[in-house]
Specification:
427 residues; mainly alpha; Fumarase C, Chain B, domain 1; Fumarase C, Chain A, domain 2; Ribonucleotide Reductase Protein R1, domain 1; two-stranded antiparallel ribbon; two-stranded parallel sheet; 64% helix
């Protein structure tokens, strides 16, 4: 991903745009065919020479075209170089070439997303029936399975991939409409043909630049993906806490967690994911600030995009790779999940008991008061809630011993897991 945003590759994309333009214009009879052929065969540049020229002229596109023209002259075909950049303005090249770089970056990120989705799907099915306590407000609620938790992550990332694919397709666009977007020196037909040759679509309308709502949406979607990765990492951080210990990130042989405490196994990768996701989100704000430009163009967006587009795509590429590594190697402590499930001695079935008493004829308010009384007592005394319920004579008037046993049956709580999985993973 980093190579895609290197100075060398940026200028390679610029040259690709310039050569595509000369070829199309030659086909349309606006540039001599021999000149286009000479450009195709001989146009080149030296990065250090571009940088040297730019220090003098203070304009990167002029430095680029000058360096390419020099390369043509050195090969004895300098006359053809006058047809380089013919009819174009700087941003015709810059925005269109950036479209190529974004297309390349998007392909890498889609591959990353596919790999993470595959890892999540595998983990979800491996633990489809691994019972775990569900938590709301950080407190024990009702039973779930760990597979359901992971399936939820998969479902969210699948949506994020769909959003990213749409945003990337919007960004697969170029423009060669001239200094103010009026096609004063190049025809719309030429723009369409040049863009098609580059694997891009021509923007329906532009000023000197493509509208930056496209870029803002693209970076915002990347920020959304980062937020979903942070959600996964944050959950694993909680599950790795000493008091919980239901899951933990891989810990390599020879790895050390603390300089002072040899016993530590810290969730460092999860914390890194959470931290770097904040950077991607901060770039989204900068991208939205770029939408409002003066009239048909100013340059305030350019310096920002030189940072936020490479940084966001590189960061997200890294975050997706690290999250896939995390999921592939995740240590799932099934025994600890069972222990935590039983930790409150049946309290997690209070909701089912309430429903069963109501169905058996008790007023809901009376049933709630009765169940809550036992629950609060069991919570305070750390006593056995299920045992107290079984010994309550008022409850015995409404529910048999077998019915009470069923009220505390975890399988009953999780009878629809297969149906949920079928909805999430229909094939």
């Amino acid at each position: 991903m980093g190579g895609n945003w290197s100075e060398q590759h940026k200028y390679e994309c610029w040259l690709e745009v310039e050569l595509a333009a000369s070829e199309v214009l030659a086909e349309l009879g606006e540039v001599p065919r021999e000149a286009a052929q000479a450009l195709q065969a001989n146009a080149a540049f030296d990065l250090k020479r571009i940088q040297e020229i730019e220090r003098e002229v203070k304009h990167d596109v002029i430095a680029f075209t000058t360096a390419v023209s020099e390369s043509m002259k050195a090969k004895g075909v300098g006359e053809a170089s006058r047809w380089l950049h013919y009819g174009l303005t700087s941003n015709d090249v810059v925005d269109t070439a950036q479209g190529l770089q974004i297309k390349n970056a998007s392909a890498i990120l889609v591959k990353d997303l596919d790999e993470l989705l595959a890892a999540l799907r595998k983990l979800a099915f491996a633990h489809k029936d691994t019972v775990q306590i569900g938590r709301t407000h950080g407190m024990h609620a009702e039973p779930i399975t760990f597979g359901l938790k992971v399936a939820l992550w998969w479902d969210e990332l699948a949506r994020q991939k769909a959003r990213f694919t749409a945003a990337a397709e919007e960004m697969r666009v170029g423009k060669l409409s001239g200094a103010v977007g009026t096609f004063a020196h190049l025809s719309p037909e030429a723009e369409e043909k040049i863009c098609a040759r580059l694997g891009l679509r021509a923007a329906p309308i532009s000023s000197q630049v493509l509208s930056r709502d496209l870029h803002a949406n693209y970076v915002a979607v990347m920020a959304g993906i980062g937020a979903s990765l942070e959600k996964i990492a944050l959950e694993i951080r909680h599950l790795q806490r000493t008091e919980v210990r239901e899951a933990e990130e891989p810990f390599a042989a020879g790895q050390k967690g603390s300089s002072a405490m040899p016993h530590k196994k810290n969730p460092v990768t999860c914390e890194q994911i959470c931290g770097l996701a904040r950077l991607v989100r901060s770039n989204a704000q900068a991208a939205f600030e770029n939408v409002a430009l003066w009239h048909e163009r100013d340059i305030s967006h350019s310096s920002v995009e030189r940072v936020i587009l490479p940084d966001s795509t590189i960061l997200l590429d890294y975050l997706l790779a690290r999250t896939t590594w995390l999921i592939d190697g995740l240590v799932v402590n099934v025994d600890r999940m069972k222990r935590n499930l039983a930790n409150t001695k049946g309290l997690i079935f209070s909701g089912q008991l309430l429903l069963d008493l109501t169905a058996a004829g008790m007023l809901r308010e009376d049933a709630y008061r009765l169940v809550q009384g036992h629950a609060l007592q069991a919570w305070q005394a750390e006593s056995d809630f299920q045992q107290a319920i079984q010994q309550d004579s008022e409850i015995a008037k409404h529910l048999t011993a077998a019915q009470l046993e069923q009220a505390f049956d975890v399988k009953r709580q999780l009878k629809n897991v297969d149906a949920i999985f079928h909805r999430v993973f229909p094939v």
